Amino acid sequence: MNVKRPKLSREEIGKTLANFELFLNQKIEEKGDGIFVSTHEIRGALEEEVNEHLDAVHNDNVEEQMNELFDIAVCAIWGVASLRKLRDD
Known about the structure:
Blueprint: H1 10-31, H2 39-58, H3 62-88
Helix pairs in contact: 2-3
């Protein structure tokens, strides 16, 4: 079955990335700039954020779903940056 999907414009993607950058900076202000110190810590943080997203889905709360997806993205990016730092230091 072929589903016709609306397309996202580059402008819409750009706005989302700009919003994400604000969200990321807010999270750094709240939590600090310390790295994850192990792959297990990264996995645990990601799993927690994914579970919170699932709760938002079950509650049919679109705003919270978007926030949780941003949290997942922050966690993933922070995890990659942390692993690079651990590898390179």
